[in-house]
Amino acid sequence: MDQTNGTNGIKVATTETQAETGALHKVIIIGSGPAGLTAALYAARAELRPLVIAGITPGGQLMMTTEVENFPGFIQGIMGPDLMNNMIKQVERFGAKILYEIVSAVNFAARPLVVKTESGEYSAQSVILAMGAEANWLGLPGEQRLRGKGVSACATCDGFFFKGKEVAVIGGGDSAMEEANFLTKYANKVTIIHRRGEFKASKIMLERAQANPKIAFVLNSEVADVLGENKVEGLRLKNTASGDVSEMKIDGLFLAIGHHPNTGLLKGQVELDERGYVKVLNNTRTSAEGVFVAGDIGDPRYRQAVTAAGMGCMAALDVEKFLTEK
After folding, report:
1. Is residue 313 among the annotated active site residues?
2. In angstroms, rounded to a whole number, what is the distance separating the alpha carbons of residues 78 and 63?
């Protein structure tokens, strides 16, 4: 029995999937972004009958993205939600089961491996972790309302849409300098806004940004709000020293204040690095036997849909080999 999710038209498995709580799954995939769904595609075609625990809102960060032009195969680009909905239909075609719930706990010391959700407990011979990572946001009303409408956390993904425009980058580390330099390929002017008077960025990265004639700096200032109704039109800034408030006209805002991986429930279950990302020990294997990783949750460097998808493929192939050897 299925019910339809009214927000995106995706069919949500209910009784049929829940009836499998007592079954031993060959592989459970946690996450439904490009990494998780590509892993599900390969696992399903290998007849492993994967169970994908997708979360309440499937599709990962691309569900909050407008036009995607850097995913191979789409000449005119594709809307982020359309791409993810296509991937969901594709994995269902090959027999993957999708459960739209949130994982509340895991036990990777147990055999078989255990994954818990609100509806029950699921057992598996192997698990692929594909919960992704999220950008750090300022938490401002205008920022959240205009995400995908001029507010972005990925210059590589969205810089192309700001040809000939003026944009701002928030941050003071290497990432901010790198994003700003990249954006000058498209934008006429890039303003780096930093709440302090000094930067955390390395000397070489800071000097590179300072030498770029398209880059300007606004220091000792923080963004109080993002202005605009249907698109970004400007920023309201507050001087951290004087408290003075001013406004700046811009066409786009890029956040470069870091990312955080969605690994909260994995503490004590698999080895994490100092930033909280899953440590990839061998190909896509983790420190827990039978547990594999794919996508941004184990990749603090690239964070692209296509690299996440590639890693999802790798994880599924590694799972297939692991199960065969076992």
Report:
1. no
2. 12
CA 57 – CA 103 distance, rounded (Å): 13
Q: Which of 2, 154, 273, 299 is catalytic?
A: 154
Average pLDDT over residues 79-106: 94
Residue 158 among the catalytic residues: yes
Query: What is the arithmetic mean of pLDDT over 7-13?
Result: 40
Mean pLDDT of 97-116: 96
Q: How far is CA 219 from CA 195, 196, 207, 210, 241, in A?
A: 6, 6, 16, 13, 10
Residues whose CB is less than 8 angstroms from the CB of residue 142 and which lie 6 or more positions away in sequence, other chains included? 225, 226, 227, 228
pLDDT > 60? residue 10: no
3-state SS assignment for residue 258? coil
Q: Which residue has the tokens 């000094």?
A: 198
Write out pLDDT tens, residues 125-159: 999 999 998 888 999 989 989 998 999 988 888 89
Contact between 130 and 30 under an 8 Å Cβ cutoff? The reply is yes
Average pLDDT over residues 284-300: 96
**Pair 3, 14: CB distance under 8 Å:** yes
Q: Please report, for residues 175, 275, 291, the alpha-carbon distance to residue 40 in angstroms, rounded to integers and kept in the order given.
A: 32, 27, 15
pTM of the model: 0.73
What is the token pair recorded at 30? 């946690």
299 an active-site residue?
no
Alpha helices in the chain (DSSP H): 15-18, 34-45, 80-93, 141-145, 155-158, 174-183, 203-210, 305-325
> What pLDDT, on the 0 to 100 scale, is given for residue 120?
92
Catalytic choice (2, 82, 157, 174): 157
Chain position carrying tokens 């002017």: 189
Computed over its alpha carbons, how large is the radius of gyration of the chain? 21
Active-site pick, 2, 82, 158, 313: 158
- Confidence band for 67, pLDDT divided at 50, 70 and 90: confident
Mean pLDDT, residues 203-213: 95
Cα 322 off chain centre by: 27
